[in-house]
Amino acid sequence: QFQDYCTEEVFSNPINRYFFQCIGGVISEGKTPDLVSVFEYTQKHPKPGSSEEENSLLAGAIAELASSVVSSVTFEQNCIRLADLSRRRKMYVIGCQLIAAGTSEMGDTDEIKAKTLEELQALDDRPQTSVRSVKDALVSLNKIVSDNISGTRTIGYPTGFNFLDEKGGMQPTDLWIIAAEFSQGKTSLALDFRLSAASAGYGAAFYSTEMMSTQLAARMVAGKSGVSSRVIMQQPLEGETLSKYDKAIGKLEGLPIYFDDSSTLSVDRIISSLRSMVRNRGVKVAFVDYLQTLQTNERNLRMTEEQFFGLTARKFKNLAKELQICIVLISQIARSKDTTEPTLSRIRGSGQISEAADVVLLIYMPEFYNKSYSGIRCKVSTKDTAQIKLAKG
Fold first, then answer.
1. Using CA atoms, how far apart are residues 340 and 387, in angstroms rounded to an integer?
2. I want to staple 229 with a disulfide (CB 3.0 to 4.6 A). Which of 59, 222, 350, 360 is the partner?
3. How far is it, in rounded angstroms, from Cα 121 to Cα 87?
4. Can you name the residues that pair with 288 across neighbouring β-strands?
């Protein structure tokens, strides 16, 4: 189980790192990584950028490394020591970064502090290799098939909406987009999703660039109690209203729902906070409200709006894959002279955002525009209703 302790990054010597890669390559082929098989692998996969003379010296280097391993008893201890040395090198780098930040006025101190804390916390994570053989993948697949047959498989994190949960809900590694025009209920829908996931026991984080955690909590309580969030925040509560408020508080206060009001100023700070949330709070699904506000805080002047949105969406998609969580981004759509109904093409920066997303939901409230539903739903009442369209996924 050396891969529980070692990854390529623990090796400061490039030759040793190359040998480690070769060992992983042998394992991925389903073979035992002994001296002969590793040597054969080096012959088939020579070290990139090395000359023929350097490659000819690798055989002797492999023999020397093999002879230095005294026994299998000390093997695990050596792996642990390598991981510890790697952590110490990282500590040295972090220390140098702090010294540089403390002796100049470059950079934002809050961002430097957040980044440093994140890097220090990450030192406690046990490294995991990303190399898997087809045998490993098939074992995981067989487990899924068996669980499906027995009915014991948990499929994603629930949204509370049957037509979505029956399709698997919010799956780990997925990037979801909730998009609509202004005042169509984007944030309310996201809060409903989050409450449903948290009620099922899954940790949920919510990042808002426009509202503080207290305001978001008021909206949650309003949804449970039927008392307006404006009333909760601005008026004295009494009688039945206070009773409804207290009951809602009792239902919500124990749920695994988390906020970080200080980490919504930039994409990188949200990502840093979310890594910590996953590690320390067990968060499984995260919501970011909303994409276009992040653009005003962070977009490089040399980058177009669409490029920025595409880059941001891909960052969150990659993070979802890395952390094995579902991330839901809330997005505005551009107004149209031709129709009030939302479409994929109207999402601001739509092309790259839609490409990065696994699921896109569009919200439409025709009552807001004094319109009716179209098509087969033309006779459905628009009063207090909205249409959620599964546009991708």
1. 12
2. 222
3. 11
4. 207, 329
pLDDT digits (tens, 9 = 90+) for 317-376: 989 998 889 999 998 887 877 888 888 888 866 677 888 899 999 999 999 989 998 888
Token duo for residue 122: 């990450």
In which element (H, E) is residue 305 found?
helix 305-323
Residues 6+ apart with CB under 8 A from 132: 28
> CA-based angle 196:201:205, to the nearest 5?
70
Is the separation of the CB atoms in 335 and 353 below 8 Å? no
**pTM for this entry:** 0.66
Of 78-92, 205-219, 220-234, the least confident: 78-92
Q: How far is CA 329 from CA 175, 353, 370, in A?
A: 7, 10, 28
Bridge-based pairing of strands 359-364 and 387-392 is antiparallel
- CA–CA dist 245, 287 (Å, integer): 25
Residue type, 35: L
